[in-house]
Amino acid sequence: MVIQKICCIGAGYVGGPTCSVMALKCPDIEITVVDLSKDRIAQWNSNEKLPIFEPGLMEIVQQCRGRNLFFSTDIVSAIRKADLIFISVNTPTKTFGMGKGRAADLKYVEGAARMIAENAEGNKIVVEKSTVPVRAAESIMNILKANNKPNSSYQILSNPEFLAEGTAVQDLLHADRVLIGGEETAEGQEAVRQLSWVYEHWIPSSKVVTMNTWSSELSKLAANAFLAQRISSINSLSAVCEATGADVSEVARAVGLDTRIGPKFLQASVGFGGSCFQKDILNLVYICECLNLPHVAAYWQQVIDMNEYQKSRFAEKVVSSLFNTVTDKRIAVLGFAFKKNTGDTRESPAIYVSTHLLAEGAHLHIYDPKVEPHQIVDDLNSSTMDPDIVNRNVVIHSDAYSATKNTHALIVCTEWDEFVTLDYEKIYADMMKPAYIFDGRKILDHDFLQNLGFHVQTIGKKMHRDVARAWGCQNHQM
Ligand code: UDX
Ligand code: ADP
Asked: Would 413 disulfide with which of 42, 279, 335, 434, CB 3.0-4.6 Å?
């Protein structure tokens, strides 16, 4: 069998970009991305705005759409005609029942597997792309086998995705590695070869790594756990730096110069967010508990606990610096996405910080270049559980200058490039005095801001206010 047609179930942050790049690089393969959501598919078919913001993605979609890339809600036909089916649906953390708050909710994966079982005929390769608990492939196989039509057969592969939001297109074009896990039977290995062939249209074969299914599933959780662990490690040291004279950027640089450690993912911040790190570690913790490995579970739980500590430490620093009360104070929040170059807010530290300040009675003026205003309102409503607070005390702005005008403090929650080059002299002039900046991403020039008159606080560095250098703030309390 040579793969000619691919169906991808789930047109989200993973399925959409992955299939777009695949279509670009495999003009000989027809790829149909399907989703239950009519709105989402309509947006993928629009020329104005895709349902997700990813630099470079629109150009690729416009080049391939209608040629060998299609977005559709006709899930049944796409499954029927495909040789290979990606399952790329969401696997959120369970919010109720067994494993609540920790285990991955596999209801969408199961839903997709049942749709395949009901509609597929002939030989199909089914590929789990969603991040799933170890041995989820087995569950998918059980569903498929239990509903097997006489003329159908399946091979299940694990092919986890490692793209990061904001750099998805580049990550997909130049992947460090592609992991493919399959059964060790002859049919399993043949399916692995088929999927490898698809990737080898643009990824060197040396970077296509094959292994058994369970190793592949666990590797995805492990990679995210390691990355998040590095951030929690540097964030833990940022607290030590703030309590001493050390500077966490200098410590990170020194540590990262060791080639055994390397410089990446050592950027101290207000905390990590995103749909993967927390969810995958909680999932790993749950698996360890189920396997009766409490020490391993407790070890990884610490990575999450440190992240919670970092977010709350930062939010509390804002309140304590503003004379221990933010009630009725106006505070600008710059950035609501969980990182720059995405409109995604899942688990964004900005949600935590904003909710904390709202609970203390603050009035928030929020601006993010890419997050839709309704998304900010939805996130805060579900986090505060009180739509009245959000209606009364939150204003969403369409630029940073209007968001910061007449505020007592400005908080940088996302490292958007445009925040670095704002006219801070103008912002300072328009703010209440004393004017405070809390740089949760360590992207601003703190000396320059202090010279303008701002009181500056950041992560991992004790800020000393140089009274002699500060101009325009002679009457302010130092
Ligand atoms: C992550 C993994 O990187 C990716 O391989 C996997 O497929 C999905 O999960 P993503 O969550 O999209 O990707 O973004 P990432 O760049 O990993 O950032 C996650 C969070 O960590 C963000 O909130 C980011 O701001 C934060 N971060 C990252 C830091 O605080 N410091 C760092 O040094 C790096
Ligand atoms: P991820 O970040 O993992 O890509 P998203 O939430 O962005 O997650 O996207 C997952 C997509 O999968 C959603 O658009 C959702 O509507 C879709 N989906 C979930 N279950 C099914 C299903 N059974 N059939 C088709 N699409 C599905």
From this structure: 335
